[in-house]
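Following up on my earlier thread - several people asked me to post the actual chain instead of describing it. Fair enough. Here it is, all 241 residues.
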Amino acid sequence: MTDLPRRSLAAGAGLLAGAIAPGACAQQVARPATPQPSGVVTVPKFITRPLVFNPEKVRGLSAGLLRGHHDNEYAGAVKRLNTVCEELAKVDFADTPAQRIGELKREEQITHNSTILHEIYFEGIAEAPSQASGLLAQAMSRDFGSLDRWRAEFVGTGRSLASGSGWVILAYAPRDKRLFNHWAADDSMAPAGGVPLLAMDMYEHAYAADYGTDAAKYIEAFVQAIKWTSAERLYREAIRV
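Reply from S.P.:
Thanks for posting it. Predicted structure:
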């Protein structure tokens, strides 16, 4: 995870509240089988999810790129998140310097966001092209004017992040009962109160091996490879919250 030290210094305080919707990431946390004694800190254990598609069959994104992204960046974020959680469990918050607490909590947020967004990213990639349909397609037409208008905004937002970092996130906001395309300059920024349905990684590690600095070609390839059934499932779960 070569990006983590740099990300640790990134500013921003967006919270991925709502991302822990059913199916989003809860399954990846191993919990104790029995309640812990009073005073004993329960340390969450995050588990790296395997790829749910054959990377050899994804059009526009090479198998090497996808495997490297998954095994290095995503798995690295999970590993670092577990380490930070273990460190926090040992902290005496009454005696630990505030600066150290801030460093750990900032890194916890960054790696937690990165873990969740990477899982949604990989869950949103399909082996064959498809089209948005069902309730999600209806909501996209309602909130963006049309599916073409949604696509233009999503792609345009990605191009605005073509400097080599950030995320574009299609999210549902339960408070507002509508969809938004969110712009996040780094892993510390995510839609407060939003439930991510689709995430496009705009860090260079997501495309440089295939496209160099041509982020626009990567964006087009990603949009063509979206697994809309995954976004539809997350949307149906989100509107029940």
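The radius of gyration is 18 Å. That should answer part of your original question.
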